[in-house]
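### Sample
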Amino acid sequence: MSGDNILYNLYERRLAARLDPARAPHHVGVILDGNRRWARAMGFGAAQGHKRGADKISEFLTWAEQAGVRVVTLWLLSTDNLSRDPAELSPLLDIISRAVEDLAATGRWRLRLVGAVELLPEPVAHRLRAAVAPDAPDADGSAGGSPGSPAGAPAATAMEVNIAVGYGGRQEIADAVRALLRERAADGATLEEVAASLREEDITDHLYTKGQPDPDLVIRTSGEQRLSGFLLWQSVHSEYYFCEVNWPAFRRIDFLRALRDYSRRERRLGR
């Protein structure tokens, strides 16, 4: 082991030891940005960048698990990304599908799809649904399941991992309102009655992430300092951490620095 590696490992252990588990975020959202920039810098094609980024996911989830995080939301594909050139989009969708199947196959984490999955090509949507819920029937009534489906379900106490694919913050809010209106209409309520009784909690209860805590910490890699609509409703009181490193090169030490920065902040939660 080189001297640089020894120093790096010592610094990493020192960082981890100084973090207070009681101040760890319960829910971490991650905007996995910079795959293409990393690929260009390395002289690779875009698909290789996306593949390297996908390979990083399991490693990151292990770090989050070790830090005591209970929920992780990974933004893998936005609704805007669906308009990319088919020559890039097609292999990207396959890489994402394989990554989700591989995560499911470990049986370590409870996976949930968050996003307008119906906007994806049907074969891709089928693969994702089958990986996340292998025993559930698909939209066409056929049995789920895939070669990557886990042999056993994760424990009820396992970390929850939201896979945000075909996700847009505005789309999520629109879908939540639509679901709420349909639910109230089925109960016989008029539009005027719904408007008169509408509360913030009613929207929250119909989001893709319903039943989960809002994100405490949102991390974006690649140096971009914008949210792009990520968890638009849920992140109103979140702390943000922008990391210069592109996602494929993201290291545990970068994650620990984000946690250290978060632990030093005084959260006001809008007060």
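The chain is about 45% helix and 15% strand. This sample (Isoprenyl transferase) is used throughout the tutorial notebook.
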